[in-house]
Predict the structure.
Amino acid sequence: MSNLFLRTLREDPADAEVPSHKLLVRAGYVRRVAPGIFTWLPLGYQVLRNVERIVREEMDRSGAQEVHFPALLPREAYEATGRWEEYGDNLFRLKDRKESDYLLGPTHEEMFTLLVKGEYSSYKDLPVSLYQIQTKYRDEARPRAGILRGREFVMKDSYSFDIDQAGLEASYLAHRDAYIAIFDRLGLDYVIVSATSGAMGGSASEEFLATGENGEDTFVRCANCDYAANIEAVTVSVPVVDEGEALPEPAIHPTPDTTTIESLVEFSNSDSATKRESDPWTAADTLKNVALIVTNPDGTEEPLVIGVPGNRDVDERRLEAVLAPAEMRTMTDDDLTKYPALVAGYIGPQILGEESITKIKYLVDPRVVDGTVWISGANHENHHTYGRVAGRDFTPDGTIDVADVREGDPCPDCGGALTLARGIEIGHIFQLGTKYAEALDLQVLDQNGKQTVVTMGSYGVGVSRAVAAIAEQSHDDIGLIWPPEVAPAQVHLVATGKDDAVFEAAQALADEFDIAGLTVLYDDRPKVSPGVKFKDAELLGMPVIVVVGRKLEEGLVEVRDRRTDERKEVAPSEALAAVQSFLD
Ligand code: ATP
Ligand code: MG
């Protein structure tokens, strides 16, 4: 450490919110260059390379082959798949000196598709899985939490190529197994959650989420069965409607000043014309219609109204996930003037949908099934309709599963209670199918000599994000605590005091550990106080700390497990065995 390029900080950086960011900066692992852009210093870079090594070993073991693409890519392929536009502001676009368009790759589906197209032409060449560990660029709207969400970051991305769906499923499972091996070795606590809605096929896409309060993703888990899904992908159980029940006739009532669900319920339960003695109205009896403007990637705008039971809100994250790459905003007063049929606070469903006069697109929560009865706006200020029946009085254009999901909601698989928790997306596996192969015309000859479109999978690991995710899960008040496989060194050896004998004994231990195959960070700094050295050792987070100091006179050194804080005082000759027992 006397010549290691390292400065530790005693104070948290002002711009850091989450522990991993604070600690990685304080421990001198990374330094910020610009928002979401970081430099890796020697110790940090060692951790990053250790993570890369584990990812590489497991990808190789799975049979995937490593290649390496440039990050600077021409526009054409991304134009062909529509992503040059779809990516919107997230894409770093640039021009060369000839004014040709380039981009910095945010992900490489197009390039891998073209690569395989250039080399392969027969089913006999398949399957093949290719991967790279590469720097990606995304101009994230909210770069945050240090390297958890960077604008430049390291990703392992791989792509599988198969002749048919059965092949794709096998490639997908091989990746899934490799990811389990990777994240187990990284020492992460994680869950595998489904990432696409049931409608698209349950296992077509899954995410690996490192569990933790500071995660940006919310997921649900069933307390009763093994259902787990990103909140963006949770599907609502559709209620069964009792067909025999007599349906009420719709009746319009004056409901002054009831633009909110709360005021509407309160009014409905107090006014003699609307009140229901036996069974008071609740928010769940009302239909809330949310008016939005959707902006398509090509810039065109269209209105969309979403109907949800009044006791639910539209969850913005879930809505964004469904609409992407289109974006949306709630209708402003300005927008509303363009659609005079929409009376703010009193929108009713009978004027919505393709079959209505307005033709305004109308999608409803899956709970709004035909035969359900609602209190809804009368499209007239200060009026609501009671007894509006879905399927009879209005016809939505379809369903949209974007209402908020709550703790205790029924599991779509078994009806058990769902629990909510947060996590960091560290990996994503996805059965792409033929989308990219079709757009870029990747075909091979099949067994019968017929041209067939290749089917693909795409798989990502957030390599740099994993470093931060590990730090998020593995630290305490005084510093980082690295799992042995990713630590910059396995042993942090501290020599304290001024006594030559101490430094000689410590150097001898360093050599012995080294020969035994351990990596050692040796604090041989001459004029640094023991207190500072201990604080640094705790902050830097090697899994085992060995102290050679005053006790050497009594023939003892201290060996300490950074994870459990267990300490042993042993003779120098027994230090190696003590270190190894802690590492095991
Ligand atoms: P997110 O939802 O967090 O923005 P994503 O779904 O857009 O991620 P993918 O396109 O699936 O990301 O990329 C594969 C992996 O790359 C992710 O699972 C994640 O671990 C990592 N990753 C994505 N964006 C970033 C980023 N801005 N910084 C660091 N890692 C990232
Ligand atoms: Mg993802």
User: Anything to note?
Assistant: The pocket of magnesium ion (ligand 2) is lined by residues 425, 428 (CB under 6 Å). Residues 198-202 have pLDDT under 50 and may be disordered.
